Amino acid sequence: MHQKNASYAIDYETIFQYAPVGMCISVDRVIQACNHALASMFGYDCAALNGQSFAVLYPTRDEFVRTGDRIIPIMNAKGRYSDERIMRRFDGELFWCHVSGRALDPQEPLGAGVWTFEDVSEKRPVTAALTPREREIAALLVEGKTSKMIARETDLSPRTVEMHRAKLMKKFSASTSSELVHKLVGVVR
User: Fold this and answer.
1) Which residue pairs, CB below 8 angstroms and at least 24 apart, start in 130-133?
2) What was the pLDDT predicted at 48?
3) In tens digits, what is the pLDDT along the chain, a chain of 189 residues?
4) What pLDDT, on the 0 to 100 scale, is given for residue 129?
5) Which of 13, 92, 130, 163 has a Cα at 20 to 30 A from 106?
6) Would you state the pLDDT for residue 7?
7) Last residue of a domain, which of 99, 125, 151?
8) Residue 114 φ then ψ, to 5°
9) What total of structural domains would you count in the chain?
10) Is residue 2 one of the residues assigned to a domain?
11) Would you say the pTM of this structure is higher than 0.85?
12) Which residue range forms the structural domain that includes residue 135?
């Protein structure tokens, strides 16, 4: 009987570079190293992204700042973070992206970390012109958050959140909140 005892050297650089999802190592929200999948997803090459702030991947600077502010308390509590949000490719195209990250040191939530990015635009196309605040609220609605929860996370009043939700409902021709969420996630009813 032939026994397979072959041992394979684990080459972490190769694993990182050929992972089927976008990955990067960051320090203080600056990309230190990214893989080919991440660079390709955003329309860059790796050399152009390495050393860049994550801000280049966001539709606006304000969205970059607000997302960082939202991530900190969750990273402090859990040591990891995950959401779906609208990001921006090099050519300006907006797309939905699933983002997950983990701090290497739990005491520094936005310090050194490992992040993954998955393009979910095929399942969820960006179909309406949204303001930065509407994009933020849309992402939180998709997570199943109520207006009160969104108000607490974004430092807005519940009434202001409701106003943004109403604008989203009009832009997506949704008559109910659940219909809006279905349209945001790309489910056609």
Assistant:
1) 130/86, 130/168, 130/171, 132/59, 132/60, 132/62, 132/63, 133/164
2) 96
3) 445 545 566 888 899 999 999 999 999 999 999 999 999 999 999 999 999 999 999 999 999 998 998 888 888 888 899 998 999 999 999 999 999 999 998 888 888 999 999 999 887 767 668 888 888 888 888 888 888 988 888 888 989 999 998 888 888 888 888 888 877 776 444
4) 81
5) 13
6) 56
7) 125
8) -115, 130
9) 2
10) no
11) no
12) 127-189
> Any idea which residue has 């860059």 for tokens?
44
**What does the H/E/C string look like for the chain?**
CCCCCCCCCCCHHHHHHHCCCEEEEEECCEEEEECHHHHHHHCCCHHHHCCCEHHHHCCCHHHHHHHHHHHHHHHHHHCEEEEEEEEECCCCCEEEEEEEEEECCCCCCCCCEEEEEEECCCCCCCCCCCCHHHHHHHHHHHCCCCHHHHHHHHCCCHHHHHHHHHHHHHHCCCCCHHHHHHHHCCCCC
Tokens of 46: 């790796």
Instruction: Tell me the C-alpha distance between 189 and 182, whole Å.
Output: 8
The pair of three-digit structure tokens given for residue 141, joined into one six-digit string: 């609605």
Joined tokens for residue 134: 């509407």
- 136 and 170 share one domain: yes
Domain-located, residue 6? no
